[in-house]
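User: Hey, my collaborator sent me this sequence without any context and asked if I could get a structure. I don't really work with proteins. Can you help?
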Amino acid sequence: MKIITKTEALAEFCTRASTHDYVTIDTEFLREKTYYSKLCLVQIAYPGEGDETAVLVDPLSDGIDLSSLYALFRDESVVKVFHAARQDLEIFFFEGEVFPKPLFDTQVAAMVCGFGEQVGYETLVRKIVKQPLDKSSRFTDWSRRPLSDAQKTYALADVTHLRGIYEFLAAELEKTNRAKWVEEELQVLTDPETYIVRPQEAWRRVKTRTTSGRFLGLVQTLARFREDHAQKKNIPRSRIFKDDALLELASNKPKSMEDLGRSRLLLRDARRGEIADGILTAIRDGIAMDPEDLPRVNNNKSHQQVNPALADLLRV
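Assistant: No problem. I've predicted the 3D structure and written it out in structure-token form, which is a compact way to encode the shape of the chain:
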């Protein structure tokens, strides 16, 4: 079981991998304490048997450069295979400003092939490659070193079994002439707009039954501050204040630190310092917003964004 910790070793492996038709890729990461995911491990395999053609890449190793991996991602002669790729792609987009192309997502392909919506990797391993899968290491701390043997075995299995799954699903799509459906759906995953969250638009994530423009204006300014602060500090939104606290603030419109102290839902750290200052500024901005600029909820269902390929699949 090979762990790559050096730039030169990674470059050598990526050179070998680039001679094959496809590679399978997965990642392990942490996000509980940060806004952006912290990449802790990359698993890669190319066609072959067992673990001999698979490696674990340690991005936390001192001085390791992932440029050769990103070069492989850009090599369009090699298909990059993931399962449920969205979070992996988000990491590589922000870490390396790259999307793996061409991309194949076995979860999307499995849905098109009739395995059900959002089918899990374990299910595909059991049904397609007829192997058991040990998931006991799934929720371990992947940033701690050294990795245990159980962690390494678990991580490697996420790309070794994926080879058989890919080959089976690719053949099924070819046989049923549905490969185009998968390609159309994957266009969303390789669009930067899927991953970029603009603070000005963050209010749309907040669920509220109110359609009052003035109330939504306050939701917008509060969500904008929270998103901007979370991005700059690289901390989760919930560490600043949660949605229920945001709605309480938009409803009560506190005007002073004393008012913030009366909040039932606001975290203690948000009642003072730069977060409290930001909240009060956001409240003032929301109250002062020109009526012409107040946000509005579009209730016209015909304007809801639905991917055409997914709509076709649902009709089937």
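In plain terms: The longest strand covers residues 22-30. You can pass these tokens on to your collaborator as they are.
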